[in-house]
Amino acid sequence: MTQPVSTREKVLSPESIEPGKIHKRHVSGDAVLKYFIYIPENRSTYTSQFVSVHGISRNAREHAELFAPLAEQYGVVLVAPVFSKRHFGDYQRLGREGGGRRADHALQMITEEIEYLTGAVSSKIFLTGFSGGGQFAHRYTMAYPERVQRLAICAAGWYTCPDESRRFPFGIVPTPRLKGVDFDMQKFLCVPTAVFVGQWDIMHDPGLNRSARIQQQQGFTRLERGRRWVAAMNRVAMEHDIDASCRFTIIPGVGHDFRRAMKNGQLGLRVFRYLFSISTNRHFTNGTCLASDRHRLESDRIPMNPELATGLFS
Q: Which domain holds residue 215?
């Protein structure tokens, strides 16, 4: 639990975080809850938080190092939480009872502390995650759509589907193992969302969930599962007459490798262009999501072999 501001003021020093450098910290009063932070030298008074969540390799530092130049360019505070295997064994599914600490609560503690330290708002974060981090990112957004401005899911192993007959994490029926979390699909669909998967992310590596249940519901590879999930989300949006669009992008020439996707596939640039280049104002009216405009994103202009896009939604 976070400390009262009066107590935190005695132990936190905003001035101690030097801009332009990556720092590793832990939440005040909670040495287990660690994160990396990069504060850009180029930032406005009221800036945003960009949160990038690692996969099961727990390479949070690598996320911070590779995204830092873009955070500087765009003037946003970069946050890379560390969900240790010992304390957050079930973080991909938000931390269900019996699987360690609640990862959803942990992220909220981190972002609230960062708002105190930097002034970067925590009420509407820009969220991404790679592999297991992509699993966490979309499930966190499903649970707390009001806290996420935009979402970029990168190479998630499998997804929570908009299925009202299956219990979480397979569908959106609440589970007693995740107390206090309900799912409002109409609100989640109002969060602009994009899925990015490498062209060659089709291997059955040890980290991929290959249970018969998942393969039957979602497919056999991350590429197939991402494509199916996007199609399912867009179908549900149409059924509810919601003005929302979930996008799917194949990254040419890369497989399931975060560093190569960043270095060779321009993943970081694609994510930042999607999250920050165009601002859309979405709001709720009688439970319906409305958008001020139907936009074409700058990220769509990144060249991609047209053959790769053939049959994405067939």
A: 5-309
Note whether residue 272 is domain-resident. yes
Domain with residue 200: its CATH number is: 3.40.50.1820
Q: How many folded domains does the chain comprise?
A: 1
For residue 210, being part of any structural domain is answered with: yes
Q: Quick check: pTM over 0.90?
A: no
Counting Cβ atoms within 10 Å, is residue 238 exposed (0-12), middle (13-18) or buried (19+)? exposed
Which two tokens mark 64? Answer: 């911070």
Q: Which long-range contacts (CB under 8 A, 24 or more apart) does 94-102 make?
A: 94/136, 94/139, 94/140, 94/143, 94/178, 94/181, 95/178, 96/169, 96/175, 96/177, 96/178, 97/176, 97/177, 97/178, 97/179, 98/177, 99/177, 101/32
Kindly report, residue by residue over 133-160, the tens digit of the pLDDT. Answer: 999 999 999 999 999 999 999 999 999 9
Residue 11 in 3-state DSSP?
A: helix
